[in-house]
């Protein structure tokens, strides 16, 4: 049972982190995901398991895969999408992206 609780808390932490990174309130996320603010609050706190369709609603609103919310890992599909987007950029834009990633790595590591 403890493993499930930890997993729910981890999912909630990822939802909270993504929401805050986007600069949204719980109410704004709830509106974008077609859920109630109370549900978002419970999901972020890790106190409530959610049905798969609600996990999908949150993942779509936050623009991440459901796998990311569940595991915290970016799956190959996500990397392919990102790679396709980067291929459309100019070399100078790619260098900017590389600098941003380097700064994020320095900040979070």
Automatic annotation (TrEMBL):
SUPFAM superfamilies according to UniProt: lambda repressor-like DNA-binding domains
Q: One Pfam family, please name it.
A: HTH_3
The UniProt keyword set, sorted, is: DNA-binding
Recorded GO molecular functions are: DNA binding; DNA-binding transcription factor activity
The residue ranges of the HTH cro/C1-type domain are 15-69
List the record's Gene Ontology CC terms alphabetically. Answer: cytosol
PANTHER family, alphabetized: HTH-TYPE TRANSCRIPTIONAL REGULATOR, METHYLPHOSPHONATE SYNTHASE
What is the protein's name according to its record? Transcriptional regulator, XRE family
């Amino acid at each position: 049972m403890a493993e499930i609780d930890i997993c729910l808390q981890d999912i909630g932490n990822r939802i909270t982190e993504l929401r805050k990174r986007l600069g949204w309130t719980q109410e704004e996320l709830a509106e974008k995901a077609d859920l109630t603010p109370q549900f978002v609050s419970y999901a972020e706190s890790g106190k409530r398991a959610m049905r798969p369709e609600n996990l999908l609603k949150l993942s779509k609103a936050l623009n991440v895969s459901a796998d990311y919310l569940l595991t915290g890992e970016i799956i190959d599909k996500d990397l392919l999408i990102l790679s396709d987007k980067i291929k459309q950029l100019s070399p100078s834009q790619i260098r900017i992206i590389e600098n941003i990633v380097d700064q994020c790595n320095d900040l979070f590591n």
